[in-house]
């Protein structure tokens, strides 16, 4: 059964964050809130979590996983960014955006797109997510918690625990989470291309 953590959305309890991070370091898969909607998260080097996310969401090998970062310094180690992309991304983070960029050698090969060698990265504007990332000291492998056949992600922690009690190791609940996933902007060809309109304002990239 999944452990359940009730975490304050603005002032996360350090003890709860430490317990969540201990689980992540022990190869756990968690459901956690972000500034757009709930997501599934694990450490980048967790081989089992990658497959577990694919199984839960029925994803193929072309799916872009997202690497969730605490700050721009962390993000810059994972992707190659030219000056134009740097300025645009810097101006809109933290926020509800995912950026697709060429992966660096720091990214495990299994997480990058098999042909394009790209990966999604983001810096969320959410106190609980940021607290987890800072305590963990590394990015999270992440994917929107959208179950097969559903049009919208689940928004309540208890609802997620009921549905995925035997498929995830922990559920982090910090109140109602939105239903809109991030706005996805693809910079892999050089120019910004909005490939999914979501919670982030797409107009700054059009």
In a few lines, what is going on in this structure?
The protein has 206 residues and is an alpha/beta fold.
Based on DSSP secondary structure assignment, what is the total number of beta strands? 10
Strand content: 15-25%
Report Rg. 16 Å
- Mean pLDDT reading: 94
**Model regions low in confidence, pLDDT < 50 over at least 5 residues:** none
Main beta sheet: 10 strands, mixed
Q: Helical element count?
A: 6
- Which oligomeric state applies? single chain
What is the general shape? globular
Structural class: alpha/beta
**SSE arrangement, N to C:** EHEEHEHHEEHEHEEE
Query: How would you write the strand order of the largest sheet?
Result: 1-8-2-3-7-4-6-5-9-10
First-to-last CA distance: 45 Å
Helix content: 25-40%
Domain YrdC-like: 14-200
Organism: Oerskovia merdavium
InterPro entries: DHBP_synth_RibB-like_a/b_dom, Sua5-like_dom, SUA5_domain
Pfam family, one: Sua5_yciO_yrdC
Structure description:
With 206 residues, the chain is α/β, with parallel strands linked by helices. The chain has helices spanning 14-25, 47-57, 72-78, 83-91, 127-136, 157-164; strands spanning 3-6, 30-32, 39-43, 66-68, 97-102, 118-122, 140-144, 170-173, 183-186, 193-196. A ten-stranded mixed sheet has the order 1-8-2-3-7-4-6-5-9-10, with helices on both faces. Strand 9 (183-186) and strand 10 form a beta hairpin. Helix 1 (14-25) packs across helix 5. The longest helix has 12 residues, at 14-25. The model has no long low-confidence stretch (mean pLDDT 94).
